[in-house]
Amino acid sequence: MADHFQLRLVDSVMLAPTVRHLVFERVDGQPLAFQPGQFLQVHFHYDDGTATKRSYSVGSVGDGSSPVQRIEIAVSYVDGGAATKLLGGLAHGGVIDASGPYGRFCLQEADTHPRYLLLATGTGVTPYRAMLPQIEKLLAAGDREVVLLYGARNETELLYGEEFEAFAQAHPGFHFHGCLSREARAVPRSSDRSGHVQHVLAELGPHADRDIAYLCGNPNMVDAAFAALQEFGLPVKQIRREKYISSR
């Protein structure tokens, strides 16, 4: 059941020119129990006093099953956005109201397909970061493979890219492909791909007998990738979706 609590900002870093990584702890000192893939809602008010809220996936990397003390999210700045005003300018020690966790965009123990296709754009990659301990356990069995296609316009927007690449180097069953739609890296890597993730998807040859897919991020990508996967024969029950919609 979702809980309501206050969060205090204890650390932050800019991941990209318009994306801030924020690290919180609960004011009451309690850890956050969540399943990787779930999200929190931040509650605040517009300037006219109207109550509103925004949703952010938890990106904390724990052991995949235990509560975490540090609650991490990634926030994209939106020009003129009310949440950007709140979270973009929040100083260390600042307090916000939140609730959660919510959502079912999680890895399922009942899944038996040998390959996971994880697709993301922008901050939609955040839940996959939280899933890394679970993915590590999946791969340890030796009969699973996980492929992450992450779409960005250029290399500065590949959030947590170095973390995913380091994980791929340490775990042969995990493959990370940065899909750059506007500009290639200054020093290209063999794992890089050119174009949007939904177009790179065809290279993987998705198949209903082999794959389970997760799609997270820009609604246009999610819809296009969903349609492409259906054309490859994946049934709806093997495609999980989470759309990130920017709000002012």
Put the structure in a nutshell.
The protein is of the alpha/beta class and 248 residues long. Helices cover 20% and strands 35% of the residues. The radius of gyration is 18 Å and the shape is globular.
What does this structure look like?
- With 248 residues, the chain is α/β, with parallel strands linked by helices.
- It is built from five helices and twelve strands.
- The protein has helices at residues 82-88, 126-140, 161-170, 197-200, 219-231, and strands at 3-16, 19-26, 39-45, 51-57, 71-76, 95-102, 115-121, 145-152, 174-180, 193-194, 211-217, 239-243.
- The strands form two sheets. A six-stranded antiparallel β-sheet has the order 4-3-6-1-2-5, covered by helices on one side. A six-stranded parallel β-sheet has the order 10-9-8-7-11-12, sandwiched between helices.
- The mean pLDDT is 93.
